Amino acid sequence: MVAGVLACASLNARAASPRDGAHDFDFARGVWHTHATQVLDPFDGGTHTVTMDGTKTARPVWNGRAWLEEIEADGPNGHWEGATLFVYNAKAGQWSQTYIDSDSGEMEAPTIGGFKDGRGEFFGTTVHKGRTVLVRGVWSDITANAHRFEISYSRDGGRTWATAFKAYLTRLK
């Protein structure tokens, strides 16, 4: 009886173990051209936007269990720089993403998530115009030489989402 209970517990533990996503961001290695659009009024029609072009450079840290991404872009409001740190939590089978703005030096609250079927989804909260909202980051259309990243906000608990930022990336090297 004890052996049967132990065998069952072992099977349940294996079934509950998260998939190993430690290399989910391997596709992002290298230097990319980024064409990014920031939506200034995501909850008010999304008609006011700022478009920027630049480069994103991503390199692995800790054998790919973390990634450092540096972004530089130019647009009508001048030069913008930022960095993003991605860290993999093997016990949870999830990634965290923390953005750092170069102008303010402030770190945003991390978003947490993972990849399934070639699509990454990360969730958290952020402040938009003085109000805390849900935030979702999505990686999609991932190929060897291109991918897409989009940030959306929700102020109704995730029932609806409004695009706040989108970037189309193509590999330079």
From TrEMBL:
Record protein name field: DUF1579 domain-containing protein
Species of the source: Rhodanobacter panaciterrae
Highest taxon of source: Bacteria
